[in-house]
Amino acid sequence: MTASDISDKHRFLAQGNVYLPHIMIIEKIIEETPGVKTFHFNFKDEQIRDEFTFESGQFGEYSVFGVGEAPFCISSSPTRGDHLEFTLQRVGKVTNALHRLGVGAEIGFRGPYGNSFPIDLLQGKNLIFVGGGIGLAPLRSLIWNVLDNRDKYGDVQIIYGARSPADLCFRYDLDAWGDDKTVDVITTVDRQESRVQSPVSRVEAGNSRLQSQESRVGAGDSRLQTADSRLLREGFVPQVLEQVAPSAENAMAIVCGPPIMIRFTFPVLGKLGFTPEQMITTLEKRMKCGIGKCGRCNIGDIYVCRDGPVFTYAQIKRFISSEH
Amino acid sequence: MGIKKIAKKDIGNLLHQWGKDYTILVPSTEGDTALTVHGSRFTVHGLWDGSDVNLDWHRNTVKPPKSNFLPPMEEMFRFQKGKEGHSIELPQEERRQLIFGIRPCDARSLRLLDMIFTDVYQDPYYLPKRNSAVLVGLVCLRPYDSCFCTSLGISPGGSDDVDLLLTDIGDEFLIEEISDKGKRLMELTAGLEDATEDDITKASEAKEKAYGKVTRKIDTQHLKDKLLSSFEDETYWEKVAAKCIGCGICTFLCPTCYCFDITDEKVKKQGARFRCWDSCAFSLYTKMPMENPREEKWQRVRQKVCHKFEFYPMSFDVIACTGCGRCIRLCPVNWDICQTLEGIRDRGGDHQ
Amino acid sequence: MNSDGRMQQRLRHEAGALLEQDKVDRIIGFEPGSLKFTTTPLITKIKDDLDRLVINPFIVNNLAVFLPGLKGRIAIVSKGCDSRSIVSLIQDNKVSRDDLVIIGIPCPGMIDLRKVEKLTGKDRDEMDDIIREGDKVVIREGIRDEGYGITPDPYPLTLEVSDVLFDNCLACEFPTPQDYDILLGEPVASRQSAAGESVESQESRVESRGEGDSRAKRLQSEASSERSVSGLQTINYRLLTRQQRWGFWRKEFRRCIRCYACRNICPSCFCKRCFVEESEPQWLMPVPRWQENLMFQVIRNIHLAGRCTDCGECERSCPMNIPLRSLTMEMYNLVGELFNFKAGMDKDAPPLMTHYEQEEAEDLIR
Amino acid sequence: MGAELNSEWEPRLLGLLCKWCSYGGADLAGTSRKKYPPNIRIVKLPCSGRVDPLFILKALHLGFDGVLVSGCHPGECHYQTGNFRARRRVAITKKFLEYMGIEPERIQASWISASEAGKFVEVVTEVTEGLRTIGPNQLFDEQRR
Q: What pLDDT sits at residue C279?
C-alpha cells in the first residue's frame, strides 16, 4: 500500500486537525501478564463511535493528557465488537501512565494511521502467523479477521512464543483458536520455568487450559503433550518454526515480535522456500506524529508510520540489516 | 511586471505600510552590537520593532526562516479536565507574517518543507502560517565561503520562491514583483519609484557577480545511488562521524530540517501539548524502551546525510539541501557535509 | 619558522613514531578545517593522516571531549586547559592515565575570531590572512567589495595579541599542560604572571576602557541594555544587582534553542544519558522555554562543579551567542572560594562532590 | 508580579528532611502541639545526603517559593557523612542560584535533631516569613499564573 492509497482512506479528525485527539473512555482492562495490559476503549462522542472504521494492522496515537502520546496498534479485529482494543507493555513514561489508569478514565486517541495487512493478497492463501510476546497483538487483529471470514482463506497455522509461560499474552484467544479445528496453534516458550510464579491471565483465570498445563510441565521434556493434544514447546520461535516447517506453497507468513525474533525468523522462512514477497511483518518504531512528519521512524526512505507499519520483507530488506 | 525601487532610508516607511496587515520579520542583530558566531553574523529574522531601521542584511541569518513557520516550540492545543471530562482548545490563529530580506536559498527551503507538511496529511500548524506569509526576498550579494547553493540549482539572485525580490543597488533597493501575492502587495504600496533601465542593469550585474562568488561546489550527480550503495559501509560512516559531537546545531539551524517532538505539560487540571524541534543527531530521538535503531553516532550521522541526499530525493525527487552552508560554518568542530559527500563520490564505481 | 611551525613539525614526527612503534592505537589532534581560520579534530589510526596535523592559533577545540567515547591507547594533543580536562576525566575514572600519551602544547592562547571581526569590521571569510607574530597579530586585507559601507582601513592591520585572544586565554592560569608525556616546546608562563598582573589589575585594565565611567555603573548599563559587550570581554556579573542579573539571564535564555552544543562539546559533560533527557522523572520539559533553558544551564553547571576547567568551549560553541562562560567561570570561582578546589590539577585527588571537609561552608547553614 | 494582585498569596515551602533527625524533630513539634506555619510540605528522605540539587531546582520549577534542606548536626549523621555531602551541594546550589539572580533566601539548610522540635518550629517560621518578605518565586510566574 502506498501513501496515496492512505490518503483515500477515511479520516476521523477531531476539529479538522490531524494532531487533535479524540476523547476515549476505557471500558475494560485485562491484565495479560504482569507487565502487559489490554484496554477495551470507546469514543466518548457517540457519532464517531458509529462512524469509525479501521483495518487490521493499523495503529493509533494514544495519549494520557499531561503525560504524552505513544503509538500502539489496534489489537481488536474490525470484524468484532462494538469497542476497540489496544495492548501495551509497561516500559516507559506513557505506558506507565496508561497502566495506572482504571476503567472509566479518559484517554486521547487519534487514528487510524498507517496501512494495513493486505487482505486481498492473503485471501485464498495458506497463512502462517509467527508471533512473539506482545507481538501477537497486531496479528490477533488479523487472525480474528481471517477466522471471521474463514472460507476465504486456506490453512491457518499460528506459531506463538513467549519468554516463559507467564509471558504468554492473549491466553483466552490461544484457547479459542486451539478449540477451532480449522486452526493449528503451536505455542512455545523460551524456557518452561516461569520467572513469575503467580497465575497469569487474571480475567480468564481458571478457564485457561494452557495455564492448567503449566504445573505438569517438567524440566528436560521439551515437547509436552497437553490434554487436548496441543503443544507447549520449549525453544525460540525461529527454531520451532524450522521444526514445524510449513510449506511455502501458496502461503504467506505474517511475522510480528521483538526485532531480534523478526531478524532470525526471516532467514528461516527463506530456508523454507518463502520469497521475500511472501513474508509480511509489522514494525514498531518511535512514531511520534504517526503521519510521516516528525521524522524519526524511517528505515531508509520508508517511514514506518506513513508507508507501514505493514511491510513485506522485500520492501525493507535493503535497510533492515543495520537499522532494525 | 512592474519594477520599482526604493531608497534604503525609506525602508522604514515601507515596512510601516506593510506592518498594518502583516507581522514584519526582519534580519536584525540582537541589540546594538553586531556580534558574530563562528564568524557568522549573529542575526535572526526577528520581530521588527517598528522604530528605526536597524537591519543587518548583508549576510544571511544564523537562525533559518523555518523558525517562523515551524517555531522551536509551539503550543498545539490546551486541555482542561472538568466535571464533564477533558476539553480541548486550539490556539488562536496568528497574524500573517511578512519575511523581509529572505535569501533565495532560504526561500527554497520553505518550498522543500512544504512537501513534507502537505504529504498525505496537511499539517494544521505549519501550513496556515506558510500560506498566509509573504516572502520579500533579497539577492544575496555576499555569500559566505561555506555557501554552495549554486550546486543545488539555486542562485543567490534567484527569484523562484519569493513573492518580491529586492536587489541592493547602492543607495536603493530594486524591487521586482515575482508572484501574484507580491503583485497584490505592491499595488497597495505607496511611495515607490519606477526603476530606470540603468537600475535594472545594475541589479542584473550584481546578481551575476553574486553567482560567481559562490565558489564551493558539490557534485550531486548519481549521489543518491552512491549513498544507497554506501549505506552499509560502517567503516566509512564511522570515520566521518568520529569528530561529530552529536549536538543539534546543524539540524536545528538547517533550513530544511523539520523533525519535531510532541510533548505534554500539565499543571493541576490543565495543560498543553507542545511541539518542539528535535534532532536526528540526538541518540534519544529514536530511542524506544527496549531498543534503539540508531544507537551509534555513525548511524545518526548517516541518517542526517542520507535523509537529505538520498531519502528525500527518493520520496519527493528533490535534494533536501539548499547549500546555505549554515551546518558547516556553525559547527563547533567544523564537520563539513561537503567533505562527507565528496568521500561518497570518490568511493568505488559500483554505480555508473 | 615560528614556534607553532616548530611544534607542528615535532608533533608530526612524535605522533608518527608513537603509531609506528605501536605505543598507541590512535592519535587525536587537529587538522586544517574546511573554512579559513578554522581547524577540525583529527582522530585517526592511519600514519599518512599525520601529515595533516597542525598547530596554529585556531586549534580551539578541547579534544578531551572525545576521550570517554574511545577505546584503546590514545595519544592526544593537549593545550593547557585541555590537559586539566583530561586530569579531571582521570579523577572521575572516565579514562585511564595508562592508556594515554599526552602530547602537550605550551599554549600562547587562541585567537577569538569574534574579536578580530569586531575590531576589523570584516567577517572571517573576508580576511586574507591572520598571522600571529609574537605579541602582534597581522591581518591581511580581504576580499573587498565596493559599496557596502565598510570604511577601508589601512591593511595590513596590526593588532595587539591581547586584544584578540579569547577571554579565557587572557585569564588562563596554566597555559602549559598540567600533565604530559611529551612537551612540544618550552613551558610558557601564565599571561597574568608574565605581565606581572594579578586578576585584580587585569580587571582594572578592563575598567580603564570604560572611559571615566565607574566600572560597576558601566556594566550595569550594559546589562540593562539589549546586550552587553561580552563578545569582547567577559563581564563579572557579580557586580550587578541581583535583579539586574535575573533580568539579564532571563533575557539571554530566551534565545536558547536547546541544541545542547554546550553540553556535547564539554569534556566534563560525559554522562551517557543527561538528566535533561530523563523521562521518569521528567526533570525538565524538552521545550526551549526560557525557564527550562535556564534551569538546564544551572543544573549543568552544578554538575560541572569541580570539573569545569574554564576552557570556554561552551560559550564558543553556542550558536545563539549566550555568554555561557560567565556561568562556568562563576562556578569555577565558587568552588575555589567555598572549598578551595581547582579542577583538573591533581589526578589522584578525589572529585569535588565525592569529598568533604569537616569544617566548611557552615556559614550557609542557618 | 505586583503584591497588590496577590493579597491571597501564601508562600509555599518544601522541606527535604532526613528521616533520622529533622523529620523526627518535625514529628515531635506536631505531637507536642507546637504551632508552625502550614506553608511547609515535607518530603522524608533517608538522609540529607540524598538531596540532589535537582530536587531543589525541581521544587522551584514546580512553583515552590523556597526549599528547606534539613539533616542531622555535623558528626551525627546516621550514615556518618551524608550531611557533609549535602552541605557541599546545598552551598553551591544556593550560591549559584544567587548568581543567576534567584534570592538566596529561597534555599535554606539547617541542622535539626530529632529532639529539637523548638528549633524546627523556629526555622520553619523564620524561613516562611523570609519568603513572605521576598515574594513569590519568579522562575515560573509567567507560565503558572
A: 86
D145 lies in some domain: no
Q: Would residue D117 count as lying in a domain? A: yes
| A3-113 fold | Elongation Factor Tu (Ef-tu); domain 3 (2.40.30)
A300: chain B residues, CB-CB within 8 Å: 231, 306, 310-311, 314
Query: Quick one: closest CA in B to C272, which residue?
Result: B283
Cβ partners under 8 Å of residue D17, min gap 6:
D23, D25, D26, D42, D43, D44, D45, D48, D70, D71
Q: In this complex, do A106 and B116 lie within 8 Å of one another by their Cβ atoms?
A: no
Q: Which candidate in C60, C76, C116, C287 is best for mutational testing of the B interface (most B CBs within 10 A)?
A: C287
Full domain range(s) for residue D46: 13-134
Return the H-helix or E-strand segment holding A108: strand A106-113
CA distance D33 to chain C (A): 24
Say whether C285 and B274 touch across the interface (CB within 8 A).
yes
CATH number at residue D25: 3.40.50
Residue C243 exposed, middle or buried by CB count within 10 Å (0-12, 13-18, 19+): exposed
Q: For CA atoms C179, C183, C187, C191, give the dihedral sign.
A: negative
Mean pLDDT of the region C244-267: 91
Which tens digit of pLDDT belongs to each residue from C73-126?
999 999 999 999 999 999 999 999 999 999 999 999 999 988 888 888 788 888
To the nearest whole Å, the CA of A154 is away from the closest chain C CA by: 47
Task: Specify whether domain A119-282 bears CATH 3.40.50.80.
Answer: yes
Are A223 and A186 within 8 A, CB to CB?
A: no
Residue A126, Cβ neighbours under 10 Å: how many?
A: 18
User: What is the pLDDT confidence band of residue D7, given thresholds at 50, 70 and 90?
Assistant: low
Q: What is the pTM (predicted TM-score) of this model?
A: 0.89
Between chains, do B124 and A3 touch, taking CB under 8 Å as contact? no
Chain B, nearest residue to A107 by Cα:
B86
| Nearest CB to D84 within list C289, C356, C366 | C356
Element (H, E) at C101: strand C100-104
pLDDT of residue C280: 85
- Among the residues of C41-146, which ranges form H helices? 80-91, 113-120
Q: List subunits contacting chain B, requiring 3 or more Cβ pairs under 8 Å.
A: A, C
> What span, in angstroms and rounded, lies between the C-alpha atoms of B107 and B163?
10
A92 and chain C in contact, CB less than 8 A? yes
Q: Is the pLDDT of residue B31 over 60?
A: no
The answer to whether domain A3-113 and domain A119-282 are alike in fold is no
Predicted local distance difference test score (pLDDT) of residue B215: 92
Average pLDDT over residues B38-47: 57
Touch between B and A (at least 3 CB pairs under 8 Å): yes
Q: Where are the domains of chain A?
A: 3-113, 119-282
Domain ranges of chain B: 3-73+91-213, 223-346
Domain count, chain D: 1
pLDDT by residue (tens digit) across B160-212? Answer: 999 999 999 988 899 999 999 999 999 888 888 899 999 999 999 999 999 99
B300: left (phi over 0), alpha (psi -120 to 50) or beta: alpha
> In this structure, what DSSP letter does residue C305 have?
T
Q: Residues B197-208: pLDDT tens digits?
A: 999 999 999 999
Helices A237-244 and A259-271: crossing angle in degrees, nearest 10, is: 20
pLDDT digits (tens, 9 = 90+) for A122-144: 999 999 999 999 999 999 999 99
ipTM, two decimals, is 0.88
Residue whose entry in the numeric block shows the C-alpha cell 530594486? B174
**CB A117, CB A144: distance < 8 Å:** no
- Tell me: the pLDDT tens digits for A179-211? 888 999 999 888 776 444 444 444 443 444 444
**Among partner residues B90, B275, B280, which is closest to A295 by beta-carbon distance?**
B280
